[in-house]
């Protein structure tokens, strides 16, 4: 049998030496902290990290902070030393094996047993080691030493005996660590932008449509002082239903069809792509691009109300959809938005009937009262939200691609 060489599938240029197989204990000191009792925690002072803090940081979430006094910190670090920039804390309880890279020399202490302390030395790059904890190799190793799928603790001794493939050349470690550091920064940047845009959309949907019986919204585009008109939806639209299809009608390729479900709506304003297909029946209903669809049933009334949308022309419309064709003085995109987010949403939720599954009929929709401004203002509102959703989708797509690149790189850049 030919022995496999210890080199990764993907590698930076100018590096050709085989990697070394080590264990963590050969590379750096690994220890834990001196005991701190909960009654010694304070409301401010030196940050006191627990496994929940590390996991929250790793996922990009916030966590309620804990602290200890500076006096206690000085006493404890006088015995075991202080955590320094470049060191790594790793969760030893709960969600085990999650790393935290210490990025400054500011005072920091941590809970014993909850976290392991890896004192990174000059022969090991901190970012390389931090990234290794996210690699498939390490995660598989954790699983291999688990009991019934998971282990309750990842101990100091287990950490010391954990294998790691590592390039002997510190420059190659640096290259790999820096690559994943930059990739992580890009992911975080797009994540923040995506979250801000989603938050902005949610806020503007409330402020740009009348709420709680108001006749005009809080925020309007300049140049539109006219009051909004109120009418029942039945006075300004025509109604119909889609064509019924069953699960047995679904095919791998055929005519694309919109069937109700979060998979297709995702509370978006316009549905342009679906991944469900059928062989078209006689009498099928095909979108012209002007209709507004509202699900005829759902798990909750809120699900139904929030899922109103317009559909790209040419897609088939399923029988589980109520179809609204607005009059010429009402913009389809605006109507879909106001049904999902304005006063009509509350009216719709009240009219939905059912226990395990709730239903809404076209006759219920006809009775819903809607408020709308002049067409020019409607179009501005619709355009604003469609552009906002395009930005959200762009950042979401880029975020997905970057995460896929990271996962593929983690699999192929370590041995």
Description of the molecule:
By secondary structure, the protein is an alpha+beta fold. It folds into 2 domains: 20-167, Adenine-n6-DNA-methyltransferase TaqI, Chain A, domain 2 (Alpha-Beta Complex); 229-372, Adenine-n6-DNA-methyltransferase TaqI, Chain A, domain 2 (Alpha-Beta Complex). The chain is built from 12 helices and 22 strands. It has helices spanning 24-27, 51-59, 70-80, 126-132, 136-144, 156-160, 170-207, 301-306, 332-341, 343-351, 362-366, 375-412; strands at residues 20-23, 30-31, 46-49, 67-68, 88-91, 99-101, 109-110, 115-118, 163-166, 229-232, 237-241, 250-251, 255-258, 270-271, 277-278, 292-295, 297-298, 309-311, 316-317, 321-326, 358-359, 369-372. Strands 11-20-16-18-14 form a 5-stranded mixed sheet, covered by helices on one side. Strands 2-8-5-6 form a 4-stranded antiparallel sheet, with helices on both faces. The longest helix has 38 residues, at 170-207. The two termini are 19 Å apart.
How would you concisely characterize the structure shown here?
This protein is α+β, with helices and mostly antiparallel strands and 415 residues long. It has helices at 24-27, 51-59, 70-80, 126-132, 136-144, 156-160, 170-207, 301-306, 332-341, 343-351, 362-366, 375-412; strands at residues 20-23, 30-31, 46-49, 67-68, 88-91, 99-101, 109-110, 115-118, 163-166, 229-232, 237-241, 250-251, 255-258, 270-271, 277-278, 292-295, 297-298, 309-311, 316-317, 321-326, 358-359, 369-372.
Poorly predicted runs: none
Q: Write down the domain tally.
A: 2
Q: Output mean pLDDT.
A: 90
Under the CATH scheme, which class of the largest domain?
A: Alpha Beta
Question: What fraction of residues sit in β-strands?
Answer: 15-25%
Proportion of helical residues: 25-40%
The N- to C-terminal Cα distance equals: 19 Å
Structural class: alpha+beta
């Amino acid at each position: 049998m030919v022995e496999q060489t210890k080199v990764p599938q993907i590698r930076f240029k100018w590096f050709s030496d085989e990697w070394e197989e080590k264990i963590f204990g050969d590379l750096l000191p690994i220890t834990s902290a001196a005991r701190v009792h909960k009654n010694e925690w304070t409301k401010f002072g030196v940050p006191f990290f627990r496994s929940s803090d590390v996991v929250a940081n790793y996922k990009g979430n916030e966590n309620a902070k804990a602290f200890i006094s500076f006096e206690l910190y000085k006493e404890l670090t006088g015995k075991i030393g202080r955590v320094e920039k470049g060191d790594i804390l790793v969760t030893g309880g709960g969600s085990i094996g999650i790393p935290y890279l210490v990025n400054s020399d500011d005072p920091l202490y941590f809970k014993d047993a909850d976290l392991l302390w890896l004192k990174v030395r000059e022969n090991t790059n901190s970012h390389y080691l931090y990234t290794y904890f996210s690699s498939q190799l390490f995660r598989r190793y954790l699983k291999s030493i688990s009991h019934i799928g998971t282990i309750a603790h990842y101990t100091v001794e287990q950490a010391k005996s954990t294998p790691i493939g590592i390039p002997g050349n510190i420059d190659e470690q640096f290259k790999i660590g820096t690559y994943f550091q930059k990739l992580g920064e890009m992911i975080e940047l797009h994540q923040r932008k995506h979250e801000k845009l989603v938050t902005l959309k949610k806020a503007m949907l409330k402020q740009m449509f009348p709420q709680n019986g108001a006749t005009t919204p809080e925020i309007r585009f300049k140049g539109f002082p006219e009051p909004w008109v109120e009418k029942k939806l039945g006075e300004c639209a025509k109604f119909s239903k889609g064509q019924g299809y069953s699960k047995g009608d679904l095919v791998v390729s055929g005519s694309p069809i919109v069937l109700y479900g979060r998979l297709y709506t995702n509370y978006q304003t316009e549905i342009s792509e679906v991944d469900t297909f059928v062989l078209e029946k006689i009498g099928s209903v095909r979108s012209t691009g002007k209709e507004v669809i509202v699900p005829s049933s759902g798990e909750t009334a809120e699900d139904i109300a929030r899922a109103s949308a317009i559909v790209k022309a040419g897609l088939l419309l399923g029988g589980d959809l109520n179809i609204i064709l607005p009059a010429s003085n009402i913009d389809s995109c605006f109507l879909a938005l106001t049904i999902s987010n304005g006063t009509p949403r509350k009216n719709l939720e009240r009219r939905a009937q059912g226990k395990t599954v709730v239903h809404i009929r076209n006759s219920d929709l006809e009775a819903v009262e809607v408020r709308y401004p002049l067409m020019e203002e409607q179009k501005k509102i619709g355009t604003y939200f469609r552009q906002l959703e395009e930005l959200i989708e762009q950042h979401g797509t880029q975020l997905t691609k970057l995460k896929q690149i990271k996962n593929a790189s983690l699999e192929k850049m370590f041995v």
